[in-house]
Amino acid sequence: MERIPNEALVVRGGRNRPEDIKRSTATHPSGITGISVECAVGLSVAELGMKNK
To answer: In sequence order, what DSSP letters do the residues of 5-29 get, joined into one string?
Structure first.
């Protein structure tokens, strides 16, 4: 599994309250369990927030 570099910014949309995170956590067909985020080195939070629009 590839690790996210320490200098990367990580953005997740929505309210992100504990109950939102719990409801959104799922297992991908690859076997990884977690939540959907956008992350990258060298992009701003605004750029990451626009990646899937």
So the answer is: PTT-EEE--S---HHHHHHH-EE-T
